[in-house]
Design brief:
Length: 205
C-alpha cells in the first residue's frame, strides 16, 4: 500500500512539474509562424507594426489609455512569446486592479511617476513609487495596478510581456460587470444586494 501511495505521489509531482514547464506560450519548430497562405509570402511588412505611430505628435489623452501590440494586433508575434503595451496616464488616473493570466509584466516608466503594486497569493501587498527610468516587474497572474497620483503632470510607461497573448482580466469589470448572481456577490463581499447593484450601475458605462 505504501509503495502504491509513493508511486502516485511521485506521478502527481511529475505531472505538476511537467504542467509548470509547459506553462506559457508553446515553443514553435520553425523560425516564425507565417501568415495564412491566401495572404501570400511574408515580407518585411508582416514583421512591422505601425500602430504606435498614432502616438507621435498626438495630444495626450484626457483619460487613461492603453495601446497594445499583442498577437491580436500584430499577428507576427504568434510564437514569439513577447508583446508590448504603451500606457498613458493623465494626472490623477489609474489602471484599475487587473491580472494577466498568461504572462508576467515588465513596466518601464518613460515620463512622470507612478505608484504601482501587486498582491501575492498570501494577500501581501508590494508597492513602490516609480520615477522616470525605473522598471518594475509584476509576476504572472497576480492582481496589480498602476496609479498616477500627480495632480498636475501626466505619466507614460511601456510594458513588455512574456507572451504574445498575455490576456487581461480587469477585476472590477470581471466581478461586477459579469452575470454573477447579486446574492452571491453580496454574501462574498459581506454586504447587501442594493450595494452590489449600486456598484454594478457605476461600472456599466
Amino acid at each position: 500500500m505504501a509503495s502504491k501511495l509513493h508511486f502516485f505521489l511521485l506521478l502527481s509531482v511529475t505531472c505538476a512539474s511537467w504542467h509548470i514547464s509547459m506553462a506559457g506560450d508553446p515553443d514553435i519548430l520553425t523560425d516564425f509562424i507565417p501568415p495564412p497562405a491566401f495572404l501570400g509570402a511574408p515580407s518585411g511588412n508582416y514583421f512591422t507594426f505601425t500602430g504606435m505611430r498614432s502616438l507621435v505628435g498626438a495630444p495626450f489623452p484626457t483619460t487613461f489609455k492603453v495601446l497594445k501590440a499583442t498577437m491580436m494586433e500584430f499577428p507576427a508575434l504568434n510564437g514569439q512569446s513577447v508583446s508590448y503595451s504603451v500606457l498613458q496616464f493623465p494626472n490623477g488616473t489609474v489602471n484599475p486592479p487587473h491580472t494577466h493570466p498568461r504572462a508576467s509584466e515588465l513596466l518601464f516608466v518613460l515620463m512622470g511617476s507612478l505608484q504601482v503594486g501587486f498582491v501575492d497569493t498570501t494577500n501581501k501587498l508590494f508597492t513602490q513609487t516609480l520615477q522616470e527610468g525605473d522598471i518594475f516587474v509584476f509576476p504572472k497572474g497576480l492582481v496589480h495596478f498602476q496609479f498616477n497620483g500627480d495632480a498636475k503632470n501626466p505619466a507614460l510607461a511601456l510594458s513588455a510581456f512574456g507572451s504574445a497573448s498575455p490576456g487581461t482580466v480587469k477585476v472590477p469589470s470581471a466581478v461586477f460587470n459579469s452575470t454573477i448572481d447579486d446574492q452571491v456577490l453580496a454574501l462574498s463581499f459581506k454586504t447587501d444586494v442594493a450595494t452590489i447593484q449600486k456598484l454594478k450601475s457605476g461600472l456599466s458605462g
